[in-house]
Amino acid sequence: MYRLHFGIFVLIILAISQPAFNQTITIDSLKKEVRNAKSTDKKQLAIFALCNQGYNLNPDTLMHYAQIAKNTAIKLGNLHDKVEAMYYESSALTDKGLIDSSIEIANQCMNILSTKLNDPVLQANVFNQKGRCYMRKNQYKEAIDMGYHVIEGGEKSGDALLQVKGKTLIGWAYLEMGQSKEALRWHLKALQTTSDTLLLEKYSILFANLAINYNGLGKTDSSIFYINKAIRYSRKYDNLFALSNSLAIQAQIFVRSGQGNLAERPLKEVVEIRKLIGDPFYIVSDMSQLALYYAHYGHPDKGIALCNEGIALAKQYKMDTKLFFLYSTLAENYKALGDTTLYATMLEKIISLKDSVYQSNSAEALAEMQTKYDLQKKENIIIQQKIDIVSKDYLLYGSLILVLFAVIIFSLLFKNYKRKQKMQMHLMLQEEKRMSFINITSAEENERKRIAADLHDNMGAYASAIIANVDEMIQHQQELSDITLQHLKTNAGELMSNLRDTIWALNKEKISLIGISDRFKSYVHKIGRAYPDIKVEIEEKISKDVSFSPVQALNIFRILQEALTNALKHSHCSYIRICIACDETMNISVVDNGSGIDEHNLVKGNGIRNMQARAKESGFTLTVKRVSPGTEVLLVPAVGALQAT
Fold first, then answer.
1. What is the pLDDT of residues 446-463, one digit of tens each?
2. Helix 280-296 × helix 264-277 angle, to 10°
3. CA separation for the pair 73, 45 (Å, rounded)
4. Topology of 510-637 in CATH?
5. Going by C-beta distance under 8 Å and a sequence separation of 6 or more, which residues neighbour residue 616?
6. Rounded Cα gap, residues 11 and 274, in angstroms
7. 592 DSSP β-pair partners
8. CA dihedral in degrees (623, 629, 630, 633; nearest 10)?
9. Could you tell me how far CA 501 lies from the centroid of its own chain?
10. What is the mean predicted confidence (pLDDT) over 38-66?
11. What is the DSSP track for 623-635?
12. Cα(496)–Cα(482) distance, rounded to whole angstroms?
């Protein structure tokens, strides 16, 4: 059994110097694209796409295509392509175990990128490549420093994959130093960097690292969960590098969880994959895993031989980082064999290695690096905030300009709207003036007709009487001359009186209630002389004077005249009381102590009808009713009627 496994690892080591073919369908397809490219540019693009699959290529194959790309770039004078090709050369040298040469080329790339080219993504990938080199040289502090640079480049360029790579690299360094909790913290940070599940699936090595973290902390369920994910995604995207590492970790989990019988199958698949990739760094890792398997399943002698072979190979390729695991596995085999002396010796070697690792990667140096990274991150945040402020300023200025344009447009629209409104208002005013003119004209015409009717009704009667008197004088000149002349004088006087009353009313814009009262008192004094047996008393209670239009004033005056005349001529009274009052509202009454009016015959008299018509026309309510004794005529404003003041 030992000879079989030893022979397999010899074949793996020999495979390092042999080009590998037919690794994956993706690799075969890309190689075909390189062969069939019709132009230099297309061939160069196809080569870089192939080199980007370097984790699936034998290092000699990767170096072969990287050198073709570099020579083409030099011929075309394309400095960027030359640096990218050198980056892949460095990666190939790392896989071949030629770490110092790899770092030298990576430094050349960094020098050009920092002085002549500006490609933060390529620069971050070169930092990641240097980190891989430092990991193999047991220089964990330097590897962590590279990880911080990778994260910084990813943050500046907005590349989530670079940020995941940088955090994974730092977690890997802490894992190699045996600081499992810190390693797990960084690997979880890498997992939480993005919600892009496709990106994380393609970078399946992260899930393998999480699995080995949890396994080291004794959390078997979590380690199995993540290693199954790592294997599934590695197969899905043909990632041979991640698949081989994941299978090796799965075998380790099986062994440590007491399921060693399941470890042989993944270990055999790992060997087949390593034949294709040919990376001695991981071949030594696989040796350590198989030796651990022997330690737990009754073949410590085979495990000891395999560990010694792995230690020799690690020293040959200067892979000091693998010595820690090889000596740990060797100690497990001596313990299983029962050789306590050699077991103790191996433990001392492990302690010595740890001291060496911690001395070169002191906690103070790591803390200083963390501080440096945090400071740089804060500076990046400040830079980003400044960019955000500038962007916000541009947004603000843009918004202000937009608002200004909006205000101008709104102003123009509002101005146009106001112009239209003004025009409409002008048209409305013109229409209102036209309608007012029509109404005024109509009102004037109505008033003219009303005045004409009033003159006809009042003064026309007296004029007719005068004409009749004249006719009588002509026919009966001797007998009736004195009576006729008296009638003629009386009628002419009444005519003049009515004419003066009309002129008095129409000659003013407004007439107060006191003015109406004064004129009516004068009228009462004049007419009272013809009725010496009747006492007429006027009471004026006007605490708040009001004004009326000429028409209203004339109507009030005529109503009072008619009420007084009716009382004097028809009531058979001896006393008439007239009250003109106004405080909050007007109240005018004419009351006599006569025989009283017949309320059933109110509508028959023309005088009453004329009074009612005048009252209604002026917005008043006229009430004529029988009282004990006599008759009362009451004039008040109608309900809701407006009084002119």
1. 665 566 556 555 655 555
2. 160
3. 11
4. Heat Shock Protein 90 (3.30.565)
5. 622, 638
6. 10
7. 576
8. -20
9. 80
10. 87
11. EEEE-SSSEEEEE
12. 21
